[in-house]
Structure formats: C-alpha cells, structure tokens
Amino acid sequence: MYITLDAGRQIHKLLEKQGLAGGGLRVGVKAGGCSGLSYVFAWEAAPAEQDQVFEGPEDSRIYVDPKSYRLLEGTQIDYDTSLMSKGFMVVNPKAKATCGCGTSFSLS
After folding, report:
1. Spatial contact of 39 and 27, defined as CB atoms under 8 Å apart
2. Angle at Cα 56 formed by Cα 55 and Cα 62, nearest 5°?
3. What one-character-per-residue DSSP string does 3-23 give?
4. 80 in the Ramachandran plot: left (φ > 0), alpha (ψ -120 to 50) or beta?
5. Angstrom distances, CA of residue 57 to CA of 10, 88, 96
C-alpha cells in the first residue's frame, strides 16, 4: 500500500486533531455498496495484532486487517483537495469497476 504526500499530510493532521498522534488510519473492505464491496475508514490509536502496518510521509500510518489486505494489496491512498470534492481516494489495481462515489468497487 502506498500513501501519497497529500494523504500523509491529511492523515497526520486529522490524527493530531483527534488526539491520536502516533496512531493511524484503518482502511478496510466490507461487503455492500452499489458495486458489491465498500471501503471503510476509521481512526485508531494503535494497530491490531494481525494488522499490516504501512508507513508514509509525515509520519502517517495505515492499518489493514489480513482479510482486507488481500483485496487492497498494491493500492494507493491519496487525498483530493479539489473544489469539487474533498476526501481520501483509493486507487485499487484489483478493482475492475467502481461506483460514481468512489467508495464502492467490484472485482469482476
């Protein structure tokens, strides 16, 4: 998993704002959404024992559980700061189709 500079800055900023400096952003996958699978995000103080931990710029960290990692391997996490939309963007090479909102995807 790759964390861009923009995403790293935002992760760091939001963790500090929530009093979780030294923590990370959990990125996972669950069933649901208009394309079949959805990305889920949560702020956490520390990774779980089985998590994969990815470090990026600005002391940013992403935690991924083993089940989600199979679907997220090779993914890039970016942060969009354009006027039209603002938020984390997931660029997943395993996704074959995505929905218009960008939070849902399918593997076939």
Report:
1. yes
2. 50
3. E-HHHHHHHHHHHHHTT-TT-
4. beta
5. 10, 15, 28
Query: Are the CB atoms for 40 and 104 separated by under 8 Å?
Result: no
Instruction: List, in sequence order, every residue forming a beta bridge with 62; answer none if it has no partner.
Output: 25, 54
Q: By C-alpha distance, which of 48, 32, 33, 41 is closest to 7?
A: 41
Provide the pLDDT confidence category of residue 22 given band limits of 50, 70 and 90: very high
Spatial separation of the C-alpha atoms in residues 65 and 47, rounded to whole Å? 9
pLDDT at residue 55, rounded to an integer: 97
What is the rounded CA–CA span in Å between residue 23 and residue 42? 11
Token pair, residue 85, equals 């939309």
Residue carrying the six token digits 């942060």 = 79
Q: What CA–CA distance (Å, rounded) separates 60 from 22? A: 8
Record the pTM: 0.86
